[in-house]
């Protein structure tokens, strides 16, 4: 990512069934910074989807579809305020 903050990088849209490094980043953010106890396995399964939906509901801002991680959800996940 060559020195860019995560919030300024174009992160991919993620949803249930997606796998890979971006899912691991999502899971790490949820687990380490937002208090969700989920496995960091790179697989966007039911537990990750439930955590994403709960996170989105707790923010009352997100226009991303429930359980889908797109721009607004990435921004909220990386905003430590």
SSE layout and pairing:
Blueprint lengths: L20 H13 L12 H14 L11 H8 L3
Entry summary:
The protein has 81 residues and is mainly alpha-helical. 43% of the residues lie in helices and 0% in strands.
Structural class: mainly alpha
Return Rg in Å.
11 Å
The H/E string reads: HHH
Number of DSSP helices?
Answer: 3
Report the strand count.
0
- Indicate the percent of residues in helices: 40-55%
Portion of residues in beta strands equals under 5%
Distance between the termini: 22 Å
Describe the protein.
With 81 residues, the protein is an all-alpha fold. It contains three helices and no strands. It has helices spanning 21-33, 46-59, 71-78. Residues 1-5 have low confidence and may be disordered.
